[in-house]
């Protein structure tokens, strides 16, 4: 059976799969919750199910590609992407000691363990953690592959961002729990926002950002890119994200661009970072992908193709179920998985 998250060479059968619990509320009720009662023809963003999509299935079939190519033309692609209902659902990465990481995230970062699932026949365990329900919040999906104690984070992945009301207080708590602080609280270079940096047990970096109460505390995923203008253009046109802000820091030789589906203080966003003169990075084998919702995986795949992305899993239903997905890489090789909204809402009711 196919898998969405590629396995490691030493744990080929242990790739993570995107799963979710069966919930009892109706589709209409979910749509009302997500869109403030607007449930008519609108289709709500939803989470990505973990249902075995293996490396072998990522190439997909030619019939799926043909179907996607006939769905939308270039002239209408830009307008359709703007209207598509999309939300950043979760971010997937691998850890070497799941219980230790869960303890750190819950006790030091204030996350909740939303669910945990062990798949012994494929030798891996998933844990979902965050600051609210998965159907309305951006969450992390941790993957532990049996017997694999460490991973290479590489140089391409940057950090996760968490909004907290008091950075200094949070840092004191993390120190008391034995956590690693790599940057003490203080104003960001060239700005006024108070930040600090810490590391989790696997070495993933977290930026603590002092901010008032927010509905989305897990607020950023920072990825490094080799051509910022190219990346901005791709995420705007192919993913339908907005360029929320862009800041150049010539003194420190880097530029950042915040991309997302809504304001930074209320939504999770991508922070794309370009370091002057650096075109390529090592992605390692630790960080995996982000999942995003969509109304139509076929149109999504075709728009991605039109804008220079590579489809790694052709759009269509997953084996054994009706939920349609597609997966792609951006021009820098970062992977994203999209899931059909309506199919997934139906799957929740099973």
TrEMBL record:
SUPFAM superfamilies linked to this entry: Glyoxalase/Bleomycin resistance protein/Dihydroxybiphenyl dioxygenase
Binding, Zn(2+): 141, 159, 207
Enzyme Commission identifier(s): 4.4.1.5
Stated family: Belongs to the glyoxalase I family.
GO cellular component terms, A-Z: cytoplasm
Record's keyword annotation contains Ribosomal protein: no
PANTHER family: LACTOYLGLUTATHIONE LYASE
Active site: 207 (proton donor/acceptor)
Gene symbol of the encoding locus: LOC127773841
Organism: Oryza glaberrima
Signal sequence, start to end: 1-15
Classification via InterPro entries: Glyas_Bleomycin-R_OHBP_Dase (IPR029068), Glyas_Fos-R_dOase_dom (IPR004360), Glyoxalase_1 (IPR004361), Glyoxalase_1_CS (IPR018146), VOC_core (IPR037523)
Annotated metabolic or biological route of this protein: Secondary metabolite metabolism; methylglyoxal degradation; (R)-lactate from methylglyoxal: step 1/2
Gene Ontology MF annotations: lactoylglutathione lyase activity; metal ion binding
Catalytic function, reaction form: (R)-S-lactoylglutathione = methylglyoxal + glutathione
Protein name, UniProt field: Lactoylglutathione lyase
Cofactor: Zn(2+)
Protein keywords: Lyase, Metal-binding, Repeat, Signal, Zinc
Biological process terms in GO annotation: methylglyoxal catabolic process to D-lactate via S-lactoyl-glutathione
Function of the molecule: Catalyzes the conversion of hemimercaptal, formed from methylglyoxal and glutathione, to S-lactoylglutathione.
Domain VOC stretches: 87-211, 217-341
Cofactor comment: Binds 1 zinc ion per subunit. In the homodimer, two zinc ions are bound between subunits.
EC class name: lyase
């Amino acid at each position: 059976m196919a898998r969405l998250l590629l396995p490691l060479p030493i744990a080929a059968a242990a790739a993570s799969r995107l799963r979710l619990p069966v919930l009892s509320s109706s589709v209409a009720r979910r749509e009302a919750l997500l869109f403030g009662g607007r449930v008519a023809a609108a289709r709500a963003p939803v989470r990505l199910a973990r249902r075995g999509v293996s490396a072998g299935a990522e190439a997909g079939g030619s019939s799926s590609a043909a179907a996607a190519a006939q769905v939308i033309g270039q002239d209408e692609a830009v307008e359709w992407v703007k209207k598509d209902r999309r939300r950043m659902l979760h971010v997937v990465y691998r850890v070497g000691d799941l219980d230790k990481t869960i303890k750190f995230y819950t006790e030091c970062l204030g996350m909740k363990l939303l669910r945990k699932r062990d798949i012994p026949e494929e030798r891996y365990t998933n844990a979902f953690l965050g600051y609210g329900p998965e159907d309305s919040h951006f969450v992390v999906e941790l993957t532990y592959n049996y017997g694999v104690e460490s991973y290479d984070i590489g140089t391409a992945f940057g950090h996760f961002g968490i909004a907290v009301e008091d950075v200094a207080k949070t840092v004191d708590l993390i120190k008391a729990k034995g956590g690693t602080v790599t940057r003490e609280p203080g104003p960001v270079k060239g700005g006024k926002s108070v930040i600090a940096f810490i590391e989790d047990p696997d070495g993933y970096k977290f930026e603590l950002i002092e901010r008032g109460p927010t509905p989305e505390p897990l607020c950023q995923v920072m990825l490094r890119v080799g051509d910022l203008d190219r990346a901005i253009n791709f995420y705007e046109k192919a993913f339908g994200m907005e360029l929320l802000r862009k800041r150049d820091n010539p003194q420190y030789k880097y530029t950042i661009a915040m991309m997302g589906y809504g304001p930074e203080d209320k939504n999770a966003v991508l922070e794309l970072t370009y370091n002057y003169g650096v075109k390529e990075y090592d992605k390692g084998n630790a960080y995996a992908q982000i999942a995003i919702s969509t109304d139509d995986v076929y149109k999504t795949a075709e728009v991605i193709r039109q804008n220079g992305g590579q489809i790694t899993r052709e759009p269509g239903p997953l084996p054994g179920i009706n939920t349609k997905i597609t997966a792609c890489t951006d021009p820098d090789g970062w992977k994203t998985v999209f899931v059909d909204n309506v199919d997934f809402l139906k799957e929740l009711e099973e």
